[in-house]
Amino acid sequence: MTSAPAPTPAPVLIDAHHHLWDLDRRPQPWLDDPGLTSIRRTFTPDDLRSTATRPVAGRHLHGTVAVQCMPEVPETEDLLALAEREPLIEAVVGWADLTSPAIGETLDRLLAGPGGTYLRSLRHLVQGETEPAWLQRPDVERGLAAARDRGLSYDVLVRSHQFDQAIRLAERFPDLPQVLNHAGKPDIAGRDLAKWRDQVRRLAAHEHVVCKLSGLITEADHDNWTTADIRPVWDVLLTSFGPDRLMFGSDWPVANLAGGWNRWAATVDDLLTDCAESEVHALLAGTATAFYRLPARG
């Protein structure tokens, strides 16, 4: 008897990193920056649907992961409730105070509340923390352990000078799935990638860490970047993590500052030209589906 052939993966596209905000419901003070005027308005799932029209490798947007912006539990509650009624959103990366003694109770409440089953990961804007080893604080590690014990993952948002924290986190929490957001924000505009390259390779040595191919165009020259500016970063990520540990993300609507969703999709389409179909599937859907435990497709 011959075994049945393995099912062919469905040709779908997952945007594993985007944001949403309703300024009438919840202010976003970070948008007060004068350089962010063009995105200082409400963005909804319908806005994303109408915007994200460009296919990548022939795949159209199928599902998304909505990611927190504000360090506020109520924003996470809003995103979870939205995911419960919005078919496009398949998972939420939320926020909870990792330093709080009540972190366990907070997470239990979120998971049991409206849309709580969509909570798959937590994120903190470590990029804004000045403490040189914030991720290694005992109270933070206690919070990370609480997330891990509840089956959650962790989205790592650091800048280049904070990579040692991310590497130490990977060492100390080998049983906590982690994903590096925005590839660690390499200095694409300044063309200074040497140290970042070494750091990425060190982090990628930890196999439970994956990486988002996202947020790169806003680290480039917003007005003048080309695919050639992104390719050196792509080459490092592909050789360090491999396609099975990379996932596509748009960072929309922040991406609008440097060309928008469709231009980034076209760039990724170009970068994938020499990849095998299995590699394309991993990067555009498979890695995100596995990491965030999204609905299986076959």
Automatic annotation (TrEMBL):
Locate the Rhodanese domain: which residues? Answer: 254-273
Query: Entry's InterPro entries?
Result: Amidohydro-rel, Metal_Hydrolase, Metallo-dep_Lactonases, Rhodanese-like_dom
What Pfam families does the record point to? Amidohydro_2
Superkingdom classification of source: Bacteria
Instruction: Give the matching SUPFAM superfamilies.
Output: Metallo-dependent hydrolases (SSF51556)
What protein family is recorded? Answer: Belongs to the metallo-dependent hydrolases superfamily.
Protein name in the entry: Amidohydrolase family protein
Q: What organism, scientifically named, is this protein from?
A: Streptomyces ossamyceticus
